Amino acid sequence: MKKKVILLLAALMALLGAACGQAQGQSASSAPVEEPAALWTRQDRPVRVEYHRMWEYSDQAETEDPEVLRELVEVLRGLEVGETTSTAVEDYTDVLVFTFEDGTTQRLEFEGQCVVGEDQSRRTVDGLERLRALLNDLVGEAP
Question: What's the pLDDT at 18?
Answer without folding.
Answer: 42
